[in-house]
From TrEMBL:
The lineage of its organism: Bacteria, Bacillati, Bacillota, Bacilli, Bacillales. InterPro entries: HRDC-like_sf, HRDC_dom, HRDC_dom_sf, NERD, RNase_D-like. Keywords: ATP-binding, Helicase, Hydrolase, Nucleotide-binding. Pfam families: HRDC (PF00570), NERD (PF08378). This is Helicase.
């Protein structure tokens, strides 16, 4: 009976899908952008405008990347259905999928990333974002594996479709594409095979899909089955409501002047933290070059005076207790240049391994306990990470994490994502976006 049914289906149903069909457009991102814009234009006194501006920028960047990928998918001249921007809730699971592509041979979940910088994948399959300037690496940080992320989405989608019998043998595959045309993908030859074969640039999408369609598959589905899969997914798709309350401050500021004053004080606090990191980095570098202890360059007490008084001339520098003609003549111009340039100065460049060795050699001798437990080096690394990410996203440093969060990280030194979530000020969103980079710095500091 089953054989006769299959023969009947073959005779009565055709595979008329010859090129891509956009079966579901993305309306969610546009709706969020409109809601954010309307909220900003309302000029309500108790809105977190900085958070609104930040999210407007992030969603706009993400939308641009996905539109570039959609263009490639629609112009590949290959047969499949495209579902753009799908949010599934099934049992206790949730999955936000950028694209679900349904072909006659398989289903593909495509994750889109639009990041600033280049991507390096190590032999172990670890993803690193590399920032270069003038052909020189200025920052390298770990990032959460997008392969692991899209792999979870595949498991949830497969569980959904198999639970109601929509599919039985149809394979569900995955891929990650990077939509920034300037991004260079550097995959180690020894990286895991699933990463080498499934991480692509957005201009390689057609070649990738054609190659996948040429492979053998346990199924060769009819058009009717493709639409059935698409409809099942859409039946379980949810549109997340816009949470306006998340952009409202606990209480409106008493006056605009008060708000400006508080904001300015907060920004100054973050700027001082970054300036402190620059001065400490300079001290470490100089002590290494000269073979001296860091406190012979300047002490922690002098450091605090630099931050408090921020001298702009040699005469003002000499007024600081402990700074004599010798220190002023040897280091004065460097110190004044760092202080003058403040937050616009990139963190003084030191090789992490060299700095770590110098710290280990000198920590028991330092009367200032500058290097106790390598705390200053980790602090420097975390502040540098915060500064770099804030410039990439064009937000204030405290949007990455606050000084209070920084101190909690230095005290607890989390070793896992679970432990990181126990840090004050780190929620699931920040953990996903910045967590891997923070954990990598802590791990590196331990060795």
């Amino acid at each position: 009976m089953s054989l006769l049914k299959n023969v009947f289906n073959i005779l009565t149903d055709k595979r008329d899908i010859k090129e891509s069909i956009l079966y579901k457009e993305s309306t969610e991102t546009s709706a969020i952008l409109k809601s954010l814009t309307d909220l900003k234009l309302s000029n309500a006194a108790n809105l977190d405008n900085k958070k609104i501006d930040n999210h407007l920028k992030l969603f706009s960047i993400g939308q641009t990347g996905e539109q570039q990928v959609l263009f490639e998918l629609q112009n590949a001249m290959l047969p499949y259905l495209i579902l753009h921007d799908v949010y599934l809730e099934f049992e206790e699971y949730q999955a936000q999928m950028d694209f679900v592509i349904i072909t006659h041979k398989f289903i593909l979940v495509l994750e889109v990333k639009k990041l600033f910088g280049n991507i390096h994948v190590t032999d172990k399959g670890e993803f690193q974002r590399v920032i270069t300037k003038n052909n020189r690496v200025v920052n390298k940080e770990g990032m959460y594996s997008p392969i692991n992320q899209v792999g979870r989405h595949v498991e949830i989608l497969e569980k959904l479709l198999k639970s109601n019998g929509t599919i039985t043998k149809c394979p569900i595959r995955y891929a990650v594409t990077f939509a920034n045309p300037k991004t260079i993908l550097d995959l180690s030859k020894n990286a895991p095979a699933n990463i080498q074969s499934n991480v692509i640039r957005h201009d390689q999408i057609k070649t990738f899909l054609k190659s996948e369609l040429d492979k053998k598959s346990p199924v060769f589905m009819l058009d009717q089955q493709l639409y059935q899969i698409a409809d099942t997914i859409l039946q379980n798709h949810k549109q997340k409501p816009f949470n306006q309350e998340s952009y409202v401050l606990d209480s409106p500021p008493p006056t605009v002047k008060k708000e400006t004053s508080l904001s300015s004080a907060y920004n100054d606090q973050e700027t001082d933290q970054d300036l402190k990191a620059m001065l400490v980095a300079y001290r470490l570098k100089k002590s290494q070059e000269l073979g001296r202890k860091p406190y012979h360059i300047f002490t922690n007490k002098m450091l605090e005076e630099f931050l408090l008084k921020q001298p702009s001339t040699v005469d003002e520098l000499l007024e600081i207790e402990g700074v004599g003609s010798k220190i002023a003549s040897e280091y004065g111009e460097d110190l004044l240049a760092i202080i003058r340039r403040g937050k616009d100065l990139p963190v003084y460049e030191i090789a992490h391994s060299e700095a770590h060795s110098q710290l280990a050699a000198s920590k028991e001798d330092s009367v200032d306990n500058v290097n106790k437990g390598n705390g200053e080096l980790l602090r420097l690394s975390l502040v540098e990470f915060r500064t770099t990410r804030s410039k990439e996203l064009n937000v204030k440093p405290y949007y990455i994490f606050t000084n209070r969060t920084l101190e909690d990280i230095l005290t607890k030194r989390p070793a896992s994502m679970k432990e990181l979530l126990n840090i004050e000020g780190i929620g699931p969103k920040k953990a996903e976006e910045f967590g891997q980079g923070i954990l990598e710095l802590i791990k590196r500091d331990r060795h």
